[in-house]
């Protein structure tokens, strides 16, 4: 296939910006030129690469070409910087789980050398690898140790979670201890329907399936606030809960905890910008995680 750089840039811009008009604005060309370049790219590839929806979406074949387009764009930025040419900062899309984003990841990104603009995709750590596979992100913090094809992986450490509650809630629902009966009736807070952490703890505490009343709060800060306000108990990371006195948050199950291992996965690219961010993530994780 004869894939032209301007065509690959048009594809990347269209998926990133969501429309041909927005892609044209970012590339400083006309929407018609964007359409023509993508049509020429599809002709060269011999297949449809984009679904003309709002926002536009890459087809399965388009995802493979999109990964190539984004890799070339990152390498082009790195090369321009090495040659001393003025260039826009590299755009680094990264997938991060909500609790890491709320606690230790932003300081890590702030400590990274200048020269990159971050596009953070919030996703559960069990599902961030999907964004790596489809080319949406170049790197991800994930709970998956097995490397995605075309990626390398590094263990960062583990986030420790404990079942916590507001003191009055704990006295009301767990006055006789963290029994299976108490867990079956006490309201629980979950991040969303992909959040399995609370149910993992419940499975450890009872041989029978438990289905207590559930609140869904899809925000790390909101999840913490819901537990602190007594809506229910929830698994909170030590990095969050240790900042509050026992008058506001208490463990409801003794020393029980769950450690969630975290890994950094990134594309196998010799990119100074991506390597610098990876080094900063690893250094901050070594200080923050178990």
From TrEMBL:
The UniProt record lists the keyword Magnesium: no
Q: InterPro entries attached here? A: ArgP, LTTR, LysR_HTH_N, LysR_subst-bd, WH-like_DNA-bd_sf, WH_DNA-bd_sf
Q: Which UniProt keywords apply?
A: Activator, DNA-binding, Transcription, Transcription regulation
Q: Which residues form the HTH lysR-type domain?
A: 1-59
Under Gene Ontology molecular function, one entry of this record is: DNA binding
State if Transcription regulation is listed as a keyword. Answer: yes
Domain of life where this protein originates: Bacteria
Q: What family classification does the UniProt entry report for this protein? A: Belongs to the LysR transcriptional regulatory family.
The name under which this protein is listed is Transcriptional regulator ArgP
Q: Which organism is it from?
A: Nocardia ninae NBRC 108245
Phylogenetic placement of the source organism: Bacteria, Bacillati, Actinomycetota, Actinomycetes, Mycobacteriales
């Amino acid at each position: 296939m004869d894939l032209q750089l301007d065509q690959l840039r048009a594809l990347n811009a269209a998926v990133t910006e969501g429309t041909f008009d927005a892609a044209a604005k970012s590339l400083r060309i006309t929407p018609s030129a964007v359409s023509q370049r993508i049509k020429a790219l599809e002709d060269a590839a011999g297949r449809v690469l984009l679904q003309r929806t709002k926002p536009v979406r890459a087809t399965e074949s388009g995802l493979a070409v999109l990964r190539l387009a984004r890799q070339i764009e990152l390498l082009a930025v790195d090369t321009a910087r090495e040659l001393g040419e003025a260039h826009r900062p590299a755009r680094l899309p990264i997938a991060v789980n909500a609790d890491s984003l709320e606690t230790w990841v932003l300081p890590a990104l702030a400590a990274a050398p200048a020269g990159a603009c971050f596009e953070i995709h919030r996703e559960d750590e069990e599902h961030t690898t999907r964004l790596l596979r489809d080319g949406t992100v170049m790197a991800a913090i994930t709970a998956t140790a097995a490397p995605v094809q075309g990626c390398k992986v590094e263990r960062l450490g583990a986030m420790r979670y404990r079942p916590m509650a507001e003191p009055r809630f704990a006295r009301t629902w767990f006055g006789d201890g963290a029994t299976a009966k108490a867990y079956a009736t006490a309201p629980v807070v979950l991040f969303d329907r992909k959040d399995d952490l609370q149910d993992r703890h419940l499975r450890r505490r009872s041989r029978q399936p438990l289905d207590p009343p559930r609140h869904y709060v899809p925000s790390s800060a909101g999840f913490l606030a819901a537990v602190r306000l007594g809506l229910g108990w929830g698994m909170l990371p030590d990095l969050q809960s240790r900042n509050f006195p026992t008058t506001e948050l208490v463990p409801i199950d003794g020393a029980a905890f769950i450690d969630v291992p975290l890994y950094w996965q990134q594309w196998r690219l010799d990119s100074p910008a991506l390597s610098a961010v990876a080094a900063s993530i690893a250094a901050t994780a070594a200080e923050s995680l178990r």
